[in-house]
Amino acid sequence: MYTKVAALATLLAVAEARFGQEGLIQNLVQGLSNFGNPGQAGTLAGQTPGVLLAGANSCAKLQLADQIVAQLGNDQAVIDVAIALVAAEKNTNPFANIIPTICDDAGLPATEALRGVVPLVDPDVAGSDVENANSADSINNPFQAAGLSVADIVLANGFSNFTRQTADGATADAGAAAGGAAGGAAGGAGAGNNAGAAAPTVVCGTPTTLTQVVKAPAATAGNNNNNAGAGAAAGGLDFGLCSPEMSFEFGRAGRKPDEGTFLPADALVAQGQQDALNPNIITNRICDQLTNVCEANQAAKDACRAAQDLVAGLGTKDATTAEAFNQALGF
């Protein structure tokens, strides 16, 4: 019987081989010959190469994963192999654009046991370290997926270097709201709560660090989103509709009382985002959202990336990490 861990280990064992990965999944499906009607597993296995080729529609493998469960049953061995297919990296053509496509259909996969699993991507893709870590985690700890496409889930958890693709082949940028909940739908709800937020002010003198560029005034009364820094900044940093702050708290919902996690402090930035033990996931999310929904200017985006690099270099995972990120942006 295959397990989630065993299936993932097999996937990672061939992670360096950018071609031929479809054969691995084919063998896993073929190994389910004791399930379903005679010959069904073999027929399904024969379909796996086509859905993992570089040019295949990214939704096709999710449809096939659903089909595997529908035809072979919901035994855990079947579910685990279907999960391996959902998480599998599609082949990459090294002579073409390697930005991956990710399925943007909120109805796929339809099998509840397969939802919340996100795919591996080619390690040469920028940001792949975040996505591949998320994929590995999602095998045993799926992300929240209610009303979300896989593309929405991927974007909400820190990876944005991909193209959305629907089952009919239509494509859009990662930040487009085609999938719904993780994109533009957050904009209207968040913008109304940000009204009246005051602008940060310039610290006098010649700045030598990001911390000296701006400082934020006290939060506007009645502002539930803590967006003290939202709006146009006299010093050139305009975070638009959002505050870029990161919070660190112990015992969030679903966590142990002594387990500290990170999350964007701003509700608009955090829309659809789960808390994370890894601060780099959250700093990446914050910086991505400055572009995707916050309408921040380039100076603010550049400052956020610099603060993101600062956190990555610290290597810490506690309250001081969030403080360093926030202080680097003037909060």
TrEMBL record:
Residues 1-17 form the signal peptide. The keyword Signal applies. Keywords: Signal. This is Circumsporozoite protein. It comes from Cercophora newfieldiana.
